[in-house]
Amino acid sequence: MITAGVDIGSTSSKVVVLEEGEKILSKVIIPVGAGSSGPARAFEQSIREVNLSREDIKRVIATGYGRNTFTGADQQITEITCHARGVYELVPGVKTIIDIGGQDAKAIGIGKGGTVSNFIMNDKCAAGTGRFLEVMSRILEINIEDLADLAASAKNEISISNTCTVFAESEVISQLSTGTAREDVAAGIVQSVVGRVAGLVKRIGVQSEVVMTGGVCLNWMIIKVMEKELDVPVIASPMAQLTGALGAALLAFESAS
Amino acid sequence: MTQLKDLLSVLENVANNPAQVINKCLEEKRLMIGCAPEYCPEEIVYAAGMLPVGLWGGSTSIKNANLYFPAFACSLVQTTLELGMRGVYDRLAGIIVPAHCDHLKCFGQDWKVAVPQVRFIPLAHPINRKLEAAVEYLKSEYFRIKSVLEEIGGKPISDQALSEAIEIYNDHRKTLREFTTIARDYCTTITPSLRHNVIKSGYFMDKLEHTQLVNSLIRELKKAPPEEWQGKKVILTGIMAEPNEILDMFEDYGLAVAADDLAQESRQFRTDVPQGKDPLEGLARYWSCMEGCSLLYDPQKNRRFMLKTMAEESRADGVVACIMKFCEMEEFDYPIYKKTLEEAKIPLLYLELDLVTPSLEQVRTRIQSFAEMISRKR
């Protein structure tokens, strides 16, 4: 039986096609998300790559911010439940998940069998999210992928507000205009995101193993600083931003079986 | 069944279109007094022959009220002032504004300047409410309000009229208590939204008429056997569970309301006004008898135990904290009852609500995730 998970985030669309709930047939990421052509294109591409049609897929579950607008799905499940299921498959000992997505951050407590025991989401502000890192990278004139390396070379990390993206942007511009080194600002940006998200995680209780998902977990400095902040090892999900789609595909398999 | 549907339709229509009821009141030349959140002595208004009208803001954008309020004032006071400044409440003969929190204190002062056409009637409750001196003080506050209403109405308010009003209100409270208890056995018919509207409609109707309608509704409900509910049940706690779309989301994800601890709902009717020889003293003592609200001074913080007991007795699967954004009174209580509920292993959802935000998708994700969490719990 073939199932698929479609994770429609605010900044990207991810699809995982699964055979018998075990073998990944295809996985696709398209860097545009809810409200765009991204979800449909990602889904089309994922089934075309393995010469399948929609009829070949027994069940499709949509998740993420745009889950309710994807017409090709049989069911919608939130990204919280899907990330929990996905991470549990990849790291069975998981107790806490940190998911930093494009527009929000979530801390998820995991109970028996990969079920969600508790969760908390950030406020509406974009501080502590992938969007925050995007905005800050633009000001630093670097690609978001290079932020970790730049931050690692900091000598005198500065402090940046972690309560509001708009104010933080003003702070960063102000720091740069007074001659603060870009790497010190970059380290301050990383610390700002981690400080904000670690606060969320502490509110649900930090229990090892801690796994980070979402595109932001590809930033190794975020992982390193998060470990320091939480005082526990933090594992980057092996499937990073595809973890939610994997969870959705697994849940599709389980509900169809 | 038709009778049941008709009754629900009438009450829902009143809750969603209070202007119709208000216009009827105007035709009858009955004066109306606005009652700002959360606790006003409506019985005095009623005894004056006037209609107390509950003002609990509404879903609207802020264009005028930000002249007076900073962005971090709760949307309940912001939208009520906004509607007042737009002239929506111009037909009211006055508005009673309690000063339960800092935002309401500012709201009353702002109202005086921003909406001068609707008379501002201030009310300051005592904080140390268990003292006899507090009862005495609050009685003097109510006496002052009674005098203002006598001046507006042009006639005295007798003790007999006050006692009768208290009786009518206590009867109304008893009826709503019965309704909320019965409603949990009919979760398919009484959806979260309908349950809310049945209660909310009482803010715009004569309490005698509302009591009769709700009693008829209870009788109609009882004609059918209790309904089997496949979904989950939750307790709602906080100030209010609006905007309306929120409760529709509960229904979308198979969540029914087992009971509530909302200031707009059960906190208004779970305690009766003590009856006695002196009706104003009874009304003042009522403030001392109430329990379990973030606006009531309670050094023991008994709300945490009340919520735990409520969840256990109503066999709820979880508790949803409907936190009005920027309501520090509710935010102060939250960590206290969170700890108690966590120790009792009762799932708790923190839901930040705001009457002025048109997009509710993040709220939807929270509600759906909570529904999934309590449904999948192994």
From TrEMBL, chain A:
Protein origin, superkingdom: Bacteria
Subunit comment: Homodimer.
Cofactor section: [4Fe-4S] cluster
Species of the source: Desulfosporosinus lacus DSM 15449
Record flagged with keyword Glycosyltransferase: no
Record carries keyword Metal-binding: yes
Protein name: CoA-substrate-specific enzyme activase, putative
PANTHER family: BIFUNCTIONAL PROTEIN [INCLUDES 2-HYDROXYACYL-COA DEHYDRATASE (N-TER) AND ITS ACTIVATOR DOMAIN (C_TERM), BIFUNCTIONAL PROTEIN [INCLUDES 2-HYDROXYACYL-COA DEHYDRATASE (N-TER) AND ITS ACTIVATOR DOMAIN (C_TERM)-RELATED
Keywords: Iron, Iron-sulfur, Metal-binding
Boundaries of every ATPase BadF/BadG/BcrA/BcrD type domain copy: 5-252
Entry's Gene Ontology molecular function annotations: iron-sulfur cluster binding; metal ion binding
UniProtKB/TrEMBL annotation, chain B:
Cofactors demanded by this protein: [4Fe-4S] cluster
Superkingdom of the organism of origin: Bacteria
Keyword Metal-binding recorded: yes
Gene3D superfamilies noted in UniProt: 1.20.1270.370, 3.40.50.11890, 3.40.50.11900
Molecular function GO terms recorded: hydro-lyase activity; iron-sulfur cluster binding; metal ion binding
Iron keyword on record: yes
Keywords from the named record: Iron, Iron-sulfur, Metal-binding
Classification via PANTHER family: 2-HYDROXYGLUTARYL-COA DEHYDRATASE, D-COMPONENT-RELATED, SUBUNIT OF OXYGEN-SENSITIVE 2-HYDROXYISOCAPROYL-COA DEHYDRATASE
UniProt record similarity statement: Belongs to the FldB/FldC dehydratase alpha/beta subunit family.
Record's protein name: Benzoyl-CoA reductase/2-hydroxyglutaryl-CoA dehydratase subunit, BcrC/BadD/HgdB
Organism: Desulfosporosinus lacus DSM 15449
